[in-house]
Design brief:
Layout lengths: L16 H20 L2 E8 L3 H10 L4 E5 L2 H8 L12 H4 L6 E6 L3 H10 L1 E4 L11 E3 L2 E2 L8 H6 L4 E4 L2 E4 L3 E4 L7 H10 L4 E12 L2 E4 L13
Antiparallel strand pairs: 1-3, 1-10, 2-3, 4-10, 5-9, 6-8, 7-8, 10-11
Subcellular location: Cytoplasm; Nucleus, Nucleolus
GO biological process, one term: nuclear-transcribed mRNA catabolic process
Pfam families: Ribosomal_L10 (PF00466), RL10P_insert (PF17777)
Length: about 230
């Protein structure tokens, strides 16, 4: 990649000393990566799971470097315009950093990066507020998946249960969640107990950049939507 201008001083005001030092470390790390990798990818994510993402990142550790966090800090690191960009043209990447996004510096071939991102997905239990992907209803009768010790806890989750000869019994049909509606804290807990996973952690490519071109995988956001530093 072209020679970097990463030694240019950057002002990160209104932060405590520890916070400023942390942000400056991120700025330096991003600028160092811009010098040492051939391409930059902007990606978005949904249903982020830190442990799952760490595993994904570890798979590419030898060839790539990922950055997540404050979009503003990442924008400042790369440069927000042609006047302050660290490498010619890389400010175009900054304009794509909004919402739940991150950047990946890599030396992998384009086809390999696209395959890895497009194929990656991990299922997990949905959290409170997530949209239910299906209707889950429990029918009246014996709930063999629950032990008698769990009966008080299930009642606290709003389930109409009782103990019948040491067994947990549902006294009437009970709807845990409705498809397309947000999960309550109680619904999320019950789904976890039932082993039903409704959240899918995915990463989506937004754009690929190198000194020769910027390739968009989705529609480019308006410049006015980009967060200011």
């Amino acid at each position: 990649m072209p020679k970097s201008k990463r030694n240019r001083p950057v002002t990160l005001s209104k932060t405590k000393k520890k916070g400023r030092e942390h942000k400056e470390a991120i700025v330096n790390a991003i600028r160092h990566a811009a010098e040492n990798y051939s391409s930059v990818y902007v990606f978005s994510f949904e249903n982020m799971r830190n442990l799952k993402f760490k595993e994904f990142r570890e798979q590419l550790k030898s060839t790539s470097r990922f950055f997540l966090g404050s979009n503003k800090v990442m924008q400042v690191s790369l440069g927000r315009s042609a006047a302050d960009e660290i490498t010619p043209g890389i400010h175009k990447v900054s304009k794509l950093l909004r919402g739940d996004t991150g950047i990946c510096f890599t030396n992998l071939p384009k086809e390999e990066v696209e395959r890895l991102f497009n194929e990656y997905e991990e299922y997990d239990f949905a959290r409170t507020g997530s949209m239910a992907t299906e209707k889950v209803e429990l029918k009246e009768g014996h709930l063999e998946q629950f032990t008698h010790e769990m009966e008080p806890f299930l009642r606290k989750q709003g389930m109409p249960v009782r103990l019948n000869k040491g067994n947990v019994e549902l006294v009437s049909d009970f709807v845990v969640c409705e498809e397309g509606k947000p999960l309550s804290p109680e619904s999320a807990r019950i789904l976890r107990l039932l082993g039903i996973k409704m959240a899918t952690f995915r990463v989506h490519l937004i754009a690929r950049w190198n000194p020769e071109e910027l390739e968009l995988y989705i529609e480019k956001p308006d410049d006015s939507d980009v967060e200011s530093a």
